[in-house]
Amino acid sequence: MAKDRRDFLGMVFGGFAGLGGLAALYAMKRTWDPLPSVMAAGFTTVDLSPMKPGELRTVTWRGKPIFILKKPPMDNCKTIPDEPKKRLVKVGDSDYLVMIGLCTHLGCIPTWEPDKKIFHCACHGGEYDACGVNTFGPPPRPMDIPPFKIEGTKLVLGEEGPEYKKLVGKA
Amino acid sequence: MAHFTKANSVYDWLDQRLALTKLWKVLAAEYWIPKNINFLWAMGVVLMTMFTILVISGIFLLMYYKPDTKLAFDSVNYTIMQEVWFGWLWRHMHAVAASVVFLVIYIHMFTGIYYASYKRGREMIWISGMLLFVTFSAEAFSGYMLPWGQMSYWAAQVITNLFGGIPFIGDELVIWIRGNFYVSDPTLTRFFMLHVFLLPIIIMMLIGFHFYTLRIPHVNNQDGEDIDFDAEAEKYKAGLKKESKVIPFWPVFLSKDFFVLSVFMIFYFYLVFYHYDFAMDPINFDPADPMKTPPHIYPEWYFLWSYEVLRGFFFDVGPLSAMDMGLIAFGIANIIFFFLPWFDKDPTVAPADRRGGFFFWFWLMVIDMIVLTIWGKLPPTGINAYIGYLAAVGFLALWAALPALTGGRKGLLWLVILVTALLYIFGYMEYTKALGNGFVITVTFLIFYLLFFLSPVMVKAKGGAQ
Amino acid sequence: MNKELKILAIIVILVGITYWGIEPYAHSKMHPHHEPATFKYEDLKALNLKGDPQRGAQAIQNNGCTGCHSIKAAGIPAPMDPVSASASYGVNPPDLSNIAAVVDKKFLANFIKHPVKAAKLEHKFGSSKPYPMPDFFGSDQDLADIVAYLESIAKPQDPRGAFKVACGRCHDLRYDGWTVIGQKPKFKNEIEKAEFELKKAKYEANLKNYLGTTPPDLSMYIRSRGPEYIRDFVEDPQKLLHGTAMPRVGLTEAATEEVIKHLEHVGDRKKEKRDHLGIWVLAYFVILSVLAYLWKEKIWREVH
Ligand code: HEM
Ligand code: FES
Q: How many whole angstroms from B129 Cα to the centroid of ligand 1?
């Protein structure tokens, strides 16, 4: 009887001590979490109104380059007939191409070659057409589209707006 | 209470309180090692020395290193390399030791595999050694980030990204590890903490544990002979030194180790002074730039083989993308050596050249890992992609074949070989684009993995219980 | 013992193969081979006229060179400070006093005549975006005279000087206190410092606008690229990095060596110490190995 109670107490003690350990673990996990200021900086707002057609703009969002191209030269988007149109976003009265400027092969940053109207990745020679669809070399898929939301003529990167959901088929 | 007498010397005074004589006997003078060994048995002491060098040089680097993305590069490349007296020496010693320590670890590991020193009571030695290998890898990875050069940055970016492949939590896990959406200041400071404090402490504890695991089974010898250590030790102590099969750790074993170590140091310091490029990649002397990728991204040489297992899968299989296939294989490659004692179904402890088929298995494994290492660095274009695939599948296939090979199950062995051959053929068809993500290839991979996971469980150890 | 040597040989061979694969072989695959620099500038035509320095001094005045360039050696000051000059031209036009000390004579003549072609920047500049320095429309004799004049005033340059003249208007060298607008001075107060930083920032912005990218700081280039690459790159940047904004600057072989010497000093100033100490340390371990061997033999004689 007395022995049982001692064991019970021992278990209560052990359990309670374990609870404290869990709480401490939680604190440690939280300390590793990104800071609130870092999370808040995860959104980038770009005003698209001053852009010129055919002009490529590179902005950074979460440390990644984002390519924005107003009215991409569509004649050089011939790979998949429907694909290019699906990749365009309408903001105001123009179409824009918005995508993460990282090669889908191994993550190099492709360069836009305005005269050839292609994106060229110097790392392993990958190429993308003016709509960011892979046309040559090792890249396995078109350049990715970052989550965005449209607010008037502004583009907010990092938030999933209805246009984004429609684009990637999440709606 | 113990009985203390008036001490007749400082040593005696200490001995009464700390039992120094007894301690020395237990740890060194009467710690018995087989006589029948070669210089490969000196690698442990070489490793211990390399780790000591890393700690000492690391301490001096710490005096001027600044873990801040704005300051790190210059603190290393200007302050330490060009201003601090002998700062360049500590840095070169640290970087080169970090690299050659892996060379020695691999030699040490493969010595263990060759002489079958991972079974019949030596399993814990093997497991603690593998734990050391994994923590050393983490230590080296975190250290490579510190100088904040281009390769530091991009290797960190690519490697942390791999965690994104874990289902469901992947994306958030990556952000959690980095402390930001991309590798940046919080990433550097937390990896700095890991590198200079937490991981070294864990390594030190693991080294202690590794030594402890040696106590009861003792080290193996060149013939895998089962020695009666107590009887042989008595012989030695009775003065029959030539007849005894054992030698004490101090001074006999260590005298040989010191010789091997001294020769190794010539090699090591030659690298430190005149040939450090392989350990300190020139690209890493460009400061990190998140907006500019270096044309070739590759990890340090000692990670190349597992990196190539990751890259080797260049086509989608059924619902799994090439990347997923690579990640699965990569995950397996990183832990599979832990399970060697259970993949090997043959209880004999003997060098590989006396174990029949295992001899070929050993050398195929060595060759395969060398191929993986070399192709891990070559650009993955053209035929390199297929060679990488051959070597990556080959790596897994060698493991899948091991239980059948050592358990004497010929039929199963042939099955594994057949399935592997099919995978090679299908891979070639994928490579020449003759085959597009077929059903057959998915099924073949399924069978392959079934064989991989089931044979170590199903095949019985030869000669009964293990 | 024989067996141990055999094991050692196997390890050495395997390590050697692996090393060869991941270093020389892999690097030869990653960095395609290129012909080493000759510094002959064979694509340019030599000017086979003898120039007269005196007439050259006159020609420089007549052709308006000093409207943009200073010639401090001749007491001709710069028309603008570096920052305003960079605002007008993109980059501060060089002082001409010591140009001929680092630039190849043939290249110099060709550059004056037709800068974009000599610099190999046709892909960057043309009628739509004119190069800041206009082509030269004078006679070939004038050209020869100007080159002769520039040669007559040029003083031999030490490594640092060669770097400044050849690279210093576009590249920082922060480990030597060098910035694109000159040596960083000792600041008396925060205002001076802020003013300097502002000037530097403005200059850099203009430079970026002009070239499309900010030229990198070269402090560690001796370690990141190595002397051979720098040598070949300087001789013909387009050959090694197609499409780069860096002009061919036409250095002589000797001047290139001086520049490299400076980069070696700035980026790796402990190299000599390293090379020197290395010998002693290696000798130490050779002796230690011999002693260790003798001791080991003595001890093992008892047990064998
Ligand atoms: C298993 C042991 C260790 C390994 C494998 C290792 C590995 C590395 C590597 C690969 C680097 C980058 C080298 C370079 O490019 O310069 C590095 C840097 C560094 N390590 Fe370690 N290290 C180890 C132990 C330690 C310890 C114990 C400390 C401190 C107590 C330390 C302190 C540092 C510091 C301050 C740097 C940055 C300076 C530099 O990059 O040269 N390391 N380490
Ligand atoms: S990373 Fe772009 S082609 Fe390989």
A: 21
Which token pair is B180? 């930001």
Same domain assignment for residues C21 and C39: no
CA atoms within 13 A on the CB side of C102: 30
- Nearest residue of chain A to residue B380 (CA atoms): A124
Asked if A64 and B182 come within 8 Å (Cβ–Cβ), the reply is yes
Choose among A34, A42, A60: nearest Cβ to B186. A34
- How far apart CA C116 and CA C128 sit, in angstroms, is 13
pLDDT of residue B269: 98
Structure tokens at A154: 């502004």
Instruction: Please work out, in degrees rounded to the nearest 5, the angle formed at the alpha carbon of residue B136 by the alpha carbons of B130 and B141.
Output: 130
> How far apart are the C-alpha atoms of C113 and B374, rounded to whole Å?
50
- The CATH number of whichever domain residue B77 belongs to comes to 1.20.810.10
Do residues B383 and B235 both lie within one domain? no
Hey, are the CB atoms on B291 and A107 less than 8 Å from each other?
no
**B11 located within any domain:** no
Question: C289 lies in a domain?
Answer: no
Cα gap B75→B81, rounded to integer Å: 8
Q: Give one DSSP letter per residue of B349-390, joined into a string.
A: ---GGGSTHHHHHHHHHHHHHHHHHHHHHS-S-THHHHHHHH
C15 confidence band (pLDDT: 50, 70, 90): very high
> Which residue type occupies B462?
K
B12 assigned to some structural domain: no
- One DSSP character per residue, A74-114 reads GGG--SSSSHHHHTEEEETTEEEEEEE-S-TTT----EEET
Give the residue, out of A100, A105, A109, A128, with the most ligand 2 atoms within 8 A of its beta carbon, to mutate for a pocket test.
A105
Q: What are phi and psi of A106, to 5 degrees?
A: -130, 20
Residues C300, B220: Cα–Cα separation, whole Å: 19
pLDDT digits (tens, 9 = 90+) for B407-453: 999 999 999 999 999 999 999 998 887 766 678 899 999 999 999 99
- Check if B266 contacts C (Cβ < 8 Å): yes
B259 and B361 inside one domain: no
The reply to whether C155 and C20 lie within a common domain is: no
CATH class of A40-167: mainly beta
Domains identified in chain C, total number = 2
Q: What is the pTM of this model?
A: 0.92
Range of the domain at B275: 27-297
B218 lies in a domain? yes
C8 at interface of B, judged by CB pairs closer than 8 A: yes
- The parent domain of residue C254 ranges over 34-271
Q: Which of residues 12-31 of C touch B (CB under 8 A)?
A: 14-15, 17-19, 21-23, 25-26, 29-30
Same structural domain, B142 and B38: yes
Residues B402 and B331 in one domain: yes
**pLDDT at site B465:** 44
Residues C120 and C27 in one domain: no
Tell whether B100 and B127 lie within a shared domain: yes
Please tell me which residue, B266 or A166, carries the higher pLDDT value.
B266
What is the distance in A from the centroid of ligand 2 to the CA of A127? 9
Q: Is residue B5 part of a domain?
A: no
Those chains having 3 or more beta-carbon pairs within 8 angstroms of chain C are B
Same domain, residue pair C253 and C170: yes
| B122 and B243 belong to one structural domain | yes
Provide mean pLDDT across the span B180-208. Answer: 97
Residues with CB under 6 A from ligand 1: B 51, 54-55, 58-59, 61-62, 65, 76, 91, 94-95, 98, 101, 136, 139-140, 143-144, 146-147, 195-196, 200, 203, 280, 284
Pairing status of strand A94-100 against strand A127-128: unpaired
CB atoms A63 and B290 under 8 Å: yes
Selecting from A64, A65, A106 the residue whose C-beta is nearest the C-beta of B297 gives A106
CA distances to B90, C69, C182 from B93, in Å:
5, 50, 36
